Amino acid sequence: MNVIFLTLDRFLNINDREISEDLMRKFRREGHNVYVVCPRERSFNLPTSLTEQGGVIILGVKTLNMQKSSIIEKGVGTLLIEGQFKRAIKKYFKGIKFDLILYTTPPITFTNVVKYLKKNNPHTKSYLLLKDIFPQNAVDMEMFSKKSPFWWYFREKEKALYKVSDFIGCMSPANVEFVLKHNAYVDPVSIEVAPNSIELAQQVSLSDAEKQAMRNKYQIPIDKPVFIYGGNLGKPQGIPFLIECLEANKNRKDCHFLIVGSGTEYGRIKEWFDSSNALSVSLYQRLPKSDYDKLVQCCDVGLIFLDHRFTIPNFPSRLLSYLEYKMPVLCATDPNTDMGRIAEKNGFGYWCESNSVEAFNSMLDKIINSDLHGMGEAGFKYLSNNFLVDNTYSAIIKHF
Description:
Rossmann fold
């Protein structure tokens, strides 16, 4: 069947090991005709254009900068992108009848594009991959209040998107419960778990000598377990609490912390790092991708942090890379997110709320004295049973 995927992901290379690219390759391998519509931000200085990669047709639409840009440009870009996508689809995909429309949040402004595509083919089904819940997450982060006109505007957009979606795939059971609780008009039959998923890489495990060489290269101890935080360092991650935890353990002798990432709050953690004289913490803003992938394999436990103010149940995708490398996880999150409880129930991690350094330290002691290898194997098993592209593909395609 003809499948069209609307996304904010850049899709520069269909063979990249990324969540969206992995899923689209799966659809193509299963014999479907796959069309992707994605932004070509103004920073790339490229016009709207059509390309083909690995049998997938990619329509790159010229837009404002949607990533690593100011809040104003990102906001205006989010408002404009619906019209930009619709015009480009009319021009480049004229006459094509799509059987399945896939789209993700963010953004929540694809409603009219979906309606246009469904109008051209009354048999078309639409499937929303709900990766975050906006505008409630913005309220949680105090970007605006529920008394703000922004709340009213985006809340109406959110409702419209849910109503136009024949099916909604959520990241976790807690997400399903949240959507149904706060949106009575959503049919429970139409909503299910269809999480972020990956395609396993054909990896060659590093030898002990190679792991030691990588640790030496980045001045990381070789005689103690290493806890890695890799990824975005922004407001949703609750960086002030992360800093509190690092401060409390900065000279710990039985483990080491490695922070690798960038984002709006990187400067805050860099300022703390430069003044702390921490012996058990290493901080890097950017590493070559090949080195980062190798360095992750040299670590022992993955760290996940979320701001305690969240009322929506986030499910960060960085969990997948940790589990792929057979690392247990230590999660410090809000109480609404079910990631930590899933980790504990299935034996691949521990969880505490992200408002108590004492609770974090208790979980830290617990995991240091646990069977890290066994927990890592349990995590890889859970990944294989729940977070591979085969699982998400099957969740979607069963409706057809």
